[in-house]
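Today's session is about reading a structure prediction critically. Students often jump straight to the picture, but the first step is always the sequence itself: look for stretches that repeat, for charged clusters, for runs of hydrophobic residues. Only then move on to the predicted structure, which in these notes is written as discrete structure tokens rather than atom positions. Here is the chain we will use throughout the hour.
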Amino acid sequence: MERNALVILVSIFTILLFSNFNLADSTEKSGADTIEISIKGVISNPKYYDGKNITIEGEVEKVHHMTYFSGDPYTLLRLHDGEHNKIGVYSKGNLSINEGAKIRVTGIFKKEKGNFLIKFKNVIKAKQVEKIV
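Below is the predicted structure for this chain, in token form.
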């Protein structure tokens, strides 16, 4: 019973957190405007990169596969660069990514994402996620 309550609570907070993500984000830019940068570079100056299309590489630290109440799946990831620098990633659909995988993510960076209840810092709405071999 406690586990079910915890799952429901986490789902509600996650839905509230990402409720402002739209299918078509008006701030998205073309691939030519993508900035390739390290995780450390982004989190050291989040105000500059806020709303910009960036590409980062890192190792997956945590993976959460979730489902909206509408039934649409999404994946939450936390990436790190090996130097204790971390960044969150949100992607639609269930990604076939495991903890420890090295990946490249392209998407829109937000220095702060959330609502009146909870806020998360340094999050990317992924448009593309690929494993690095």
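Discussion point for the tutorial: Residues 2-18 form the longest helix (17 residues).
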